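Extended Data, panel c. Modelled sequence:
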Amino acid sequence: MNVSCVILNYNDWPTVKTLVERIHDYKILKHIVLVDNASSDDSYQQLLRMKDEKVTVLLAEKNGGYGSGNNMGIRYSVEQLGMSQILIANPDVIFSEECVRCLARVLEARPDIGAASAIVEDAVYGGQMNGWKLRGFGGELLSMGPVSRRVFGRFLNYPEKYFRGKKAVYVDAVHGSMLMVNGKAFLDCGGYDENIFLYQEEAVLGQRMRAGGYRMVLLLNQRYRHEHSVSISKAYDTLTARQRIRNQSEMYYMERYLHINSWQKIAARLWFGGILLEDYAAALLGKCLKI
């Protein structure tokens, strides 16, 4: 199996270094490709210190976001290194070699599978199934609201019985913090949409994989740990800053992939405004409690 790991960095080289040191000797990984997304600090110079016969360091011309940076690393892995399976990993994840091996076996055995992932253990939210349905306009709105997604969660996601007693299941989308893709399928489908800077990459990839005739699989007998967006939180340190980016990406996704009409656009903007008000209120309450 020809497996490489792509790790995207932006101003967070210490977290990248920790991950590289942890996985460097995994025999299943033939290469590790580090992509610096035009960091504003000395990340690129620090990443170059990690370069060796197994580790390659690439520098993006600009910070084009999650999709652009990962596309660069995946394209290099396939076209220059000849890799067939590519593990996409955030710097803030922890995974075993066995998990990587199981993901690679699935992709190698089933050419119709474009991507695969495992159950995610979140440092804040605990274990999550990490597989969800591609939703329509109404479902997307409900899934965004802090309150609505909790109230209507059981209608927005696969029921528990869908996962019960199984080793693996088909899903429409998986979390972008760690997944493995079939390199050829990924590039044939167009990869990540580089018009999206951050967020909604999972839904876009699910849409593109589906359109290309590929499926996604979630392994229920393997897990990885996600340290709850350590890298993102460092770059965008307030909840409202992250939510504004999420709203922009969500609107683009709805327009480009769900083909919403003008009335739906108005409804979405009003909904997004309500979510921002909730975030402001939560931030204000947090400050008051600290006083």
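The mean pLDDT is 91. This feature is highlighted in the accompanying rendering.
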